[in-house]
Amino acid sequence: MNVKIRSIWFQEEEESSSFRPPGDSVEAAVVGGGVAGLAAAAALARAGTRTALLEKGLPGRGATGRSDGQVLLATGEHPSRLVGQLGEERAALLFRAMEENREIVARLPRGTTGWKASGGWRLAESPSEAGELEESAAWLASRGEKARFVPAEELGEALPSLARFHGALFRPGEGLVDPMGLASALGEEARKSGADLFPLAECLGLEEGPDGFRLAWRGPGGEEGRLSAQVVVLAASHAAAGLDPTGYAGRVLYPFRAQALATAPLDGRVLEGLPEAPMSSHFCYEYFRRHGRRLVAGGMRWSVPGEEVGLVDDGTIHPAVHENLLAWIARHIPGASEAPAELAWTGILCGTPDGLPACGMIPGKGGLFLLAGFNGYGLSLAPALAEALAEMVLEGRSSRPWAGLFRPSRF
């Protein structure tokens, strides 16, 4: 298998960062330097809270930098199914949170984030899925959204390279980012607001004291120390489970591995019929986009035993998943299959039992907050939820009407 194991968003050469040890005490400590932790640090610091962020590696190089950069307005299930699962009122709250998140992302410096307001496509792999997309378009239209359904017989004209699908739902509000660029923009906002970011400082654990919490950390050279904080935000994805002394996060969070690839540059004929926009099919089990002249595609973890649940190794790929992704491309986007895969990578995502993230205070533990479990939709929810969490830390509650949907105590 002649393919490099590296995310398309990472530089060819490993970025370096000099280690700077955290100080002795802050008001708020955030653990985790992905999009969730960086957004939380920015929101807390912007409100005047003395904030430090600890990240065991380099910011953005975990799940954030291994995603495909889609900023969506719904999670994996199609909107019609989400309405059935959550009820119309709660589904509307979820969509409102994602719309607010999109606006936050769009306001960040586009030269850094690479934000592209392209609209997004959900494509049907079967006639029954097409029916659900048509129902979704009707429900979204009833809410005043300019969503539209494109039937199979019109798809070849609208999207020539995707003519083998059975229909599509187009949502004009969705878009694309460079995930590492988004992490960089949030990190810069956090720093400008006064937060201290400490890459290469691994949080080993925390214990409660009379005045808050003490976090044990270790640097790359074996240096160790303690950081005192009145408030702690666990935003370290699945690693939050090992840091929560109550054991609560360990009961509701679980890791799973996602895999993606990037092709060599595509032929011009294929590019003409392939929009540079978020795209997915099979209820988002497969997802793809153009990045310049390349196709980036991920998914197919369901096609191997165990569905990659429980895995935490992001340095290797599953050969069968890789081959199944290539077969999926050949089946659904045959023109793109002429370009060989050049890159492949994995990322460790964090799931919850109901598919929604946890944002709020860990039950029974004042001052300890959880911001994790995005189920692969961190770019589409984390910045908005981070702002709601900052309100909870500072005011005891959030003004966002959708915040209660994500409270950890629901489990």
Q: What is the secondary structure topology, with strand pairs?
A:
Elements: E1 4-5, E2 25-31, H1 35-46, E3 51-55, E4 70-71, H2 79-86, H3 88-107, H4 110-113, E5 120-123, H5 127-142, E6 148-151, H6 152-158, E7 167-171, E8 175-176, H7 179-192, E9 196-199, E10 202-209, E11 212-218, E12 224-234, H8 240-243, H9 248-252, E13 254-263, H10 268-272, E14 279-281, E15 286-291, E16 294-299, H11 319-332, E17 341-351, E18 358-361, E19 368-372, H12 378-395
Parallel strand pairs: 1-17, 2-3, 2-12, 3-9, 5-14, 12-19
Antiparallel strand pairs: 4-8, 5-7, 6-7, 10-11, 11-12, 13-16, 13-17, 14-15, 15-16, 18-19
What does this structure look like?
A hairpin with a 5-residue loop joins strand 11 and strand 12. The chain contains 12 helices and 19 strands. With 411 residues, it is an alpha/beta fold. The strands form 3 sheets. It has a 9-stranded mixed beta sheet with strand order 1-17-13-16-15-14-5-7-6, sandwiched between helices. The model has no long low-confidence stretch (mean pLDDT 95).
